[in-house]
């Protein structure tokens, strides 16, 4: 070399290595120890668990803020508290940003926000999923309104990318105030027990305003958001398990809304008979069973990935594969409130249907529903509006849609759960199906009220008329005779029929109205 170039031992390369090492360790070497003492990994350690080994490419790792005042000009660490870049998960490109709690507590300032904006724009342009690893103290107070504007830029990008690329938020620390709205705008939220919290106003503010005493975990921890608010879709006990499950979810999703989800191995025979189904679902419509057992029997290798499993338990929403093809399955859960649709169940299923439709995931609906939950609280809480969300989501969905009626299918709930009348491509039923305006007992009391009242033995007359109503209007073939069910099938043949039907519908094309967007009941 002529002395002007770079060599392995040149001062410039040595300086670069020093700066990169400083960015990796953070401004305070003890900060990593404190992070580990809290039971938390560092941002770099989390990224290493999420992405394929050696695949991460960092961008703007040397970015520093330019704010002044409050001593900020003397504290200008590299990375500015967020790590951004891309890598692969199972060989497929994924973009990621991870708050570094060791730097300013992961708080967001102008430079921090601009790094996130950059990686979000890249993800949208490249048509690849975006995963955010959240562990930050909110807006950087010293930067004032500039920090708030940074959040606005994140929210607008979340919204523009909604339904275009999968967006996954992983909560690995605190997320308070306006910062919580970005995860709420994304498709899926993961949380870790004991270390992650989300709330708009913290326990101190709650205490000051309402007098209520509550801990951070009690207010916005993983379990309250999984079982009470429905904000968290998945909850785990440790970060490593959580990030491994994020990888699994990504294996079920397409890169963007123009692609199909990746196929599975297809080693479970398509024509496998499901003998166990004959015993899993009791013929008596009043006896409960676990719809998850049905799902495990028909899906590839019995595997499925349930969404919001601890919230709104009367409906199960899960991702699985049938014949290697990813599907979204919505099923009433007779073990919980007889599988009834209430406010939360309607909202949960509507969101799931909408997400599947956005990312080209076919829908299979397993129907065993006695109706909508009656009650003053439900009516005043807006069951009409929330039930309409589910109705709208199904009617608006253009992906392949198959309805399978296992037992009860009563009233408006039957219509809402993807009936042929609202656009299901195919509707099948087991011989145990009961499709009707309401149950035979209730129907007889309405239709034959006078006959029962005038009878010498009202109880015997009621029993006779109930049997007559069932025989005439609720036999398994009534709907099939009128073309509202495509076929009544042997339950053992369910898997084969679903797979062949989905393959037939794989190239489905649905015309959509020429409009700016619909106006769903929010």
Word description of this protein:
By secondary structure, this protein is α/β, with parallel strands linked by helices. It has 21 helices and 17 strands. It has helices at 11-25, 29-37, 43-50, 110-126, 145-161, 181-185, 203-210, 216-220, 222-229, 239-251, 277-280, 291-298, 343-358, 376-380, 383-396, 411-416, 440-447, 449-454, 458-473, 478-481, 494-504, and strands spanning 57-59, 82-89, 92-99, 130-134, 167-171, 174-176, 188-192, 197-199, 234-236, 304-307, 315-322, 325-332, 363-369, 401-410, 426-429, 434-436, 487-488. Strands 10, 11, 12, 13, 14, 15, 16 and 17 form an eight-stranded mixed beta sheet that branches. The longest helix is centred in the first third of the chain and has 17 residues, at 110-126. The relative contact order is 0.07. The mean pLDDT is 90. This is Acyl-CoA carboxylase subunit beta. One of its GO terms (molecular function) is ligase activity. Residues 269-504 form the CoA carboxyltransferase C-terminal domain.
Number of strands: 17
N- to C-terminal separation? 68 Å
Low-confidence stretches: none
- The overall pLDDT, averaged over residues, is 90
Our Rg estimate from Cα atoms comes to 27 Å
* Derived structural class: alpha/beta
Q: What proportion of the residues is helical, as a percent range?
A: 25-40%
Shape: elongated
Number of H- or I-type helical stretches: 21
Q: Give the amount of beta strand, in percent.
A: 15-25%
Largest sheet: 8 strands, mixed
Write the layout of secondary structure elements.
Layout: H1 11-25, H2 29-37, H3 43-50, E1 57-59, E2 82-89, E3 92-99, H4 110-126, E4 130-134, H5 145-161, E5 167-171, E6 174-176, H6 181-185, E7 188-192, E8 197-199, H7 203-210, H8 216-220, H9 222-229, E9 234-236, H10 239-251, H11 277-280, H12 291-298, E10 304-307, E11 315-322, E12 325-332, H13 343-358, E13 363-369, H14 376-380, H15 383-396, E14 401-410, H16 411-416, E15 426-429, E16 434-436, H17 440-447, H18 449-454, H19 458-473, H20 478-481, E17 487-488, H21 494-504
Parallel strand pairs: 3-4, 4-5, 5-7, 6-8, 7-9, 12-13, 13-14, 14-15, 14-16, 15-17
Antiparallel strand pairs: 1-2, 2-3, 10-11, 11-12
């Amino acid at each position: 070399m002529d002395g002007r170039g770079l060599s392995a031992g040149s001062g410039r390369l040595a300086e670069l290595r020093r700066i990169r090492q400083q960015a990796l360790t953070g401004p305070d070497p003890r900060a990593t120890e404190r992070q580990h003492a809290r039971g938390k990994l560092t941002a770099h350690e989390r990224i290493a668990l999420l992405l394929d080994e050696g695949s991460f490419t960092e961008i703007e790792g040397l970015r520093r803020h330019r704010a002044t005042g409050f001593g900020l000009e003397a504290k200008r660490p590299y990375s500015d508290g967020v790590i951004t870049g891309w890598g692969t998960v199972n060989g497929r490109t994924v973009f990621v940003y991870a708050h570094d709690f060791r730097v300013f507590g992961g708080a967001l300032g102008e430079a921090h926000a601009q790094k996130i904006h950059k990686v979000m724009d890249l993800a949208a342009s490249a048509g690849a999923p975006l995963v955010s690893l959240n562990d930050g103290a909110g807006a950087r107070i010293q930067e004032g309104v500039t920090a708030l504007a940074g959040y606005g830029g994140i929210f607008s990008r979340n919204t523009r990318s909604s339904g275009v690329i999968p967006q996954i938020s992983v909560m690995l620390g605190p997320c308070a105030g306006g910062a919580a709205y970005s995860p709420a705008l994304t498709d899926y939220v993961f949380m870790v027990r004991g270390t992650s919290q989300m709330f708009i106003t913290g326990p101190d503010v709650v205490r000051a305003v309402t007098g209520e005493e509550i801990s951070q975990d009690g207010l916005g921890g993983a379990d309250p958001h999984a079982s009470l608010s429905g904000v968290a879709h998945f909850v785990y006990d440790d970060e490593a398990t959580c990030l491994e499950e994020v990888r699994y979810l990504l294996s079920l999703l397409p890169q963007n809304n123009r692609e199909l989800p990746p196929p599975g191995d297809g080693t479970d025979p398509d024509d496998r008979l499901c003998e166990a189904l004959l015993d899993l679902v009791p013929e008596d419509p009043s006896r409960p069973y676990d719809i998850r057992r049905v799902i495990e029997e028909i899906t590839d290798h019995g595997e499925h990935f349930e969404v919001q499993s601890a919230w709104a338990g009367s409906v199960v929403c899960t991702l699985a594969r049938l014949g290697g093809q990813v599907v979204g399955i919505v099923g009433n859960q007779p073990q919980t409130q007889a599988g009834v649709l209430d406010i939360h169940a309607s909202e949960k299923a509507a969101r799931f249907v909408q997400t599947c439709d956005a990312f080209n995931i076919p829908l299979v609906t397993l129907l065993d529903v006695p109706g909508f939950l009656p009650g003053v609280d439900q009516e005043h809480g807006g069951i009409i509006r929330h039930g309409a969300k589910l109705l709208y989501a199904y009617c608006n969905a253009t992906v392949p849609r198959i309805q399978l009626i296992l037992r009860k299918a009563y009233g408006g709930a039957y219509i809402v759960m993807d009936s042929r009348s609202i656009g299901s491509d195919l509707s099948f039923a087991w011989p145990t199906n009961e499709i009707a305006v309401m149950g035979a007992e209730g129907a007889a009391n309405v239709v034959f009220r006078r006959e029962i009242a005038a009878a010498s033995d009202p109880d015997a007359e009621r029993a006779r008329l109930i049997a007559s109503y069932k025989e005439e209007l609720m036999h398994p073939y009534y709907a099939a005779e009128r073309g509202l069910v495509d076929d009544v099938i042997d339950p053992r043949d369910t898997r084969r029929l679903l797979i062949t039907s989905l393959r037939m519908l794989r190239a489905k094309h649905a015309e959509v109205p020429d409009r700016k967007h619909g106006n769903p009941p929010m």
